[in-house]
Inverse folding.
């Protein structure tokens, strides 16, 4: 869990240009962190590239917090346990 | 292959800001190869730079963005509802200057296409030389 969470945090921090410390598990992307829909799409696409998965467009509205984003990645990785990508 | 008339049905840009002259290959949503012929008569060369004309990088990006619109645009003549296109982010590396006489060949391929937005990979070449490459994201709004 910890590994993938940190990886995704790094990806998100780079895309939204925020200090990773600001991106807590439940900080709201849109309200608290100034994320817009294009950034959300970039996050989704970066996850696809990093983990070699395909995430359908319908999941885009769920990219709202780090916790939700990690859950989506895990859902499509088909695993609950941590592993190095 | 799309001629300039067909390109103008897809792109909202017009003179002096239509930066695609012809489209050599167009497989909607899959691949576009577009051409911008760069001549000494381009107005921007008067100031960029006097005596040393170089195509501004931002205009190479604009040409890439217009080629990207060709990739995602859907021609619908019965319902020609105008769409607006906005750049979301641009990550481009420039490798060689583009100068008068160059034939800028731009290849666009999708990375992720969703309704209302796209992330594409773009590459611009002059003959066999890669002059710029990277990624562009754009959003598409109705009206």
């Amino acid at each position: 869990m910890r590994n993938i969470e940190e990886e995704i945090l790094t990806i998100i921090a780079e895309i939204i240009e925020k200090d990773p410390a600001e991106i807590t598990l439940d900080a709201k992307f849109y309200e608290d962190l100034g994320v817009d829909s294009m950034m959300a799409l970039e996050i989704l696409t970066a996850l696809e590239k990093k983990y070699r998965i395909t995430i359908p467009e319908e999941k885009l509205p769920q990219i709202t917090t780090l916790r939700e984003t990690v859950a989506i990645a895990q859902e499509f990785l088909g695993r609950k346990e941590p592993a190095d990508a | 292959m799309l001629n300039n008339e067909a390109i103008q049905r897809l792109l909202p840009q017009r003179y002096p800001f239509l930066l695609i002259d012809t489209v050599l290959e167009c497989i909607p949503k899959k691949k576009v190869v577009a051409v911008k012929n760069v001549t000494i008569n381009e107005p921007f060369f008067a100031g960029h730079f006097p005596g040393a004309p170089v195509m501004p990088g931002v205009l190479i990006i604009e040409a890439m963005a217009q080629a990207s619109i060709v990739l995602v645009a859907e021609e619908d003549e019965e319902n020609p509802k105008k769409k607006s296109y906005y750049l979301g982010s641009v990550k481009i590396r420039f490798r060689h200057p583009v100068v008068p006489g160059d034939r800028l060949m731009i290849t666009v391929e999708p990375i992720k296409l969703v309704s209302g937005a796209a992330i594409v990979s773009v590459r611009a070449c002059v003959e066999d030389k890669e002059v710029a490459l990277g990624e562009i994201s754009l959003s598409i709004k109705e009206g």
Notes: The radius of gyration of chain A is 12 Å. The first helix of chain A runs from residue 2 to 16.
